[in-house]
């Protein structure tokens, strides 16, 4: 038996939900970057963290979470993996609670080695989305960051 109300609701969400559309774009674009970065052994999610840490120098977990809009458990899980691979190191902290970390020489080398693959993925993503949408995405991120800061 058909439920017209439910059908209408599912049609509406499937065709208009911003979250659904963003998740689809995220998966498609992430795959482009992950495929390009595969040779480095890193995923785009890890590269994002490494870049944020590289920009911050000595990074406190709360600062990285705020910069990348990550929850603490996601960051912790990724940091543990990257420490195990030698890309990040924890720095002793005075109070012992924050556990700041920084790039190791291996982490810096990884970023340098990954640059050509990242550039290739960046071009593929731009071609797929087009210049107009790419520009709109940049503006949307700036707006969200401004509102959430």
Describe the model.
The chain is built from 7 helices and 2 strands, in the order αααααββαα. The chain has a single domain, classed as Orthogonal Bundle (Arc Repressor Mutant, subunit A). The protein is globular and about 60 Å long. It has a two-stranded antiparallel ribbon with strand order 1-2. The chain is mainly alpha-helical. InterPro entries: HTH_MarR-typ, MarR/SlyA-like, WH-like_DNA-bd_sf, WH_DNA-bd_sf. This is DNA-binding transcriptional repressor MarR. GO terms for molecular function: DNA binding; DNA-binding transcription factor activity.
SSE map:
Elements: H1 4-16, H2 18-37, H3 44-56, H4 61-68, H5 72-84, E1 88-90, E2 101-103, H6 105-129, H7 131-148
Antiparallel strand pairs: 1-2
Helix pairs in contact: 2-6, 3-4
Pfam families: MarR_2
GO molecular function: DNA binding; DNA-binding transcription factor activity
Keywords: DNA-binding
